[in-house]
Amino acid sequence: MSLQFMTYAVVGSSFALYIGIAFWSRARNTGDFYIAGRSVSPLANGMATAADWMSAASFISMAGLIAFLGYDGSVYLMGWTGGYVLLALLLAPYLRKFGKFTVPEFIAERYYSKTARIVAVICLIFISFTYVAGQMRGVGIVFSRFLEVDVTVGLLVGMGVVFIYAVLGGMKGITYTQVAQYCVLIFAYTVPAIFIAIQITDNPIPQLAFGSEITGTGTALLDKLDDIVTSLGFHEYTSGTKSKIDVFCITMALMVGTAGLPHVIVRFFTVPRVRDARISAGYALLFIAILYTTAPAVGSMARYNLINTIQPGPVGAVDGNLEYEARPEWFRTWQRTGLVQFEDKNGDGRVQYYNDANPDFADRAAEYGWRGNELTVDRDIMVLANPEIAGLPNWVIALVAAGGIAAALSTAAGLLLVISAAVSHDLIKGIFVPNISEEHELLAGRIAAGLAIVVAGYLGFDPPGWVAQVVAFAFGLAAASLFPVILLGIFFKRVNKYGAIAGMLTGLLFTYGYIEYFKGLFLKWAGSPWGDNVAAHWLFGISPEGIGVIGMCLNFAVAIAVSYLTPPPPERIQRMVDDLRVPRNFDEGKL
């Protein structure tokens, strides 16, 4: 059975499942549409939260980053998991107890200001559309390779599927669809990892294979990988090159960004009780850990297999010159997508893959007649191409395609719903048409979701970086804009509306401006003004992925300073904050 037929069958079946769930669980009122009627069990919510959060960045891109960055890629592992601890301890139970539909609604009531609500909506839209651009890129990559269609067609198909279950089912449909998507993506991620771990180390547990010896060699996988990459002029796989301050800032930005992401926070509004919010976070951490402890093994094995399979061996000599066997099928199929590129600079038929940016190695390579690195590999293909590189069966490759699409669509749906809720509930009902009927509000939410899907598809055509990199920008924006005012709103009753508004705007504008300055559109028009040494111009040596920490600090400082320079919040607001943390009429049965 051909790979294309198998892929269409597996991916098509998963789409049918998602759409069937959407019809079964379609939203009938605004409560269903925004928060699934607060009827989701902690176990189901934990699975849905894991799928919502483990996006294309986690499934497709993270192991690819680890494959090429090695030790430096650990910042993504630490940041994206540590954030859930902050969320479970500091935000989720209190926001669930507050009992509202959206994050901007909490900010509006806590800071007694419609202006604060509008600013929160603006922050939410910046965060969500930045995040969703990465998901749409992931959808396009999967479709363009496995279904062998144009990226445009792939994006349109993905948009259509999300439109059906997000617009029809709202949060209720998305929640149960995400439960199914979690099962698909985690199975699709772990099965190939087990096969490849057995191939390389004879150990079926990827987490243990990561530290095991390569079969028949007596050499540990990581030691062998260090030897291979350093012999090609790259830095050691197990050592880092990033500065300590940049590692700290990226990790911190991803952690607090996780706790400030509106599409993740809103998941804890869907459970019946406050206690269930904490339990849901625990389940989510467990389900996320399965993938995240597997990712380092996947990344290292993918880099090992890549290097060992791109170089064909000699098959004989013609007129005194060696001829080489054709490059493997996986290489040629991925070349057609443009995500793997080979330029034979010296005409010898071999793939010269090395770090020609390393002057010491470039000089040595010249002695062998090499004229520069000839291979370019997009980091986002490593997980998707890994089963093909390892020669696994077609059904495993098709399963990976379905898992990648599930990861991208699950997060995209959650993001699009919070954008929809921000428009219909926070702007239309909360600001402009407060007396709108529930039926019309539901219609407005569905229209807003449809429009958001169109914008998301457009962003997927030209995102500003790799999937994980784009998502890191979104986390930085969340860390700098929403997280501080939510945390202060719960634990610091002296902060008022003036401080909250000033803090959000400061954090958002600073962080977005920094990212735009070093990664934005003007660079595409004018080119980099710094040449190859962009990092030398970063503020304090902090990359755009980690700058959200500085934005967060500015937000905290401005919010507190402005609050103390202006009148304190009304007494009722201060009592509300006290009751939010330590309720006066404590009733365990209602918690």
Tell me the β content: under 5%
Order of helices and strands: HHHHHHHHHHHHHHEEHEHEHHHHHHHH
CATH topology title of the largest domain: Sodium/glucose cotransporter
Mean pLDDT: 82
Q: How many strands, what sense, and barrel or not for the largest sheet?
A: 2 strands, antiparallel
What is the second-level CATH architecture of the largest domain? Up-down Bundle
Number of helices: 24
For the termini, the CA-CA separation is: 54 Å
Name of the CATH first level of the largest domain: Mainly Alpha
User: What percent of residues adopt helix (DSSP H or I)?
Assistant: 55-70%
Low-confidence stretches: 314-320, 585-591
- Overall morphology: globular
Count of individual domains: 2
- Quick one: how many beta strands? 4
**Class from secondary-structure proportions:** mainly alpha
Radius of gyration: 25 Å
Describe the protein's architecture and organization.
It is a single chain. This protein has helices at residues 3-24, 30-35, 42-53, 56-69, 74-98, 103-110, 114-146, 151-201, 206-209, 221-231, 244-260, 262-265, 274-292, 295-310, 329-335, 359-367, 382-389, 394-432, 438-461, 467-491, 497-519, 521-526, 548-565, 571-581, and strands at residues 314-318, 321-324, 340-342, 375-377. It folds into two domains: 3-303 and 386-590, Sodium/glucose cotransporter, CATH 1.20.1730.10; 340-377, no CATH class. With 591 residues, the protein is mainly alpha-helical. Helices cover 70% and strands 3% of the residues. Helix 4 (56-69) crosses helix 7 (114-146), helix 8 packs across helix 19 and helix 14 (295-310) crosses helix 17. The chain is globular.
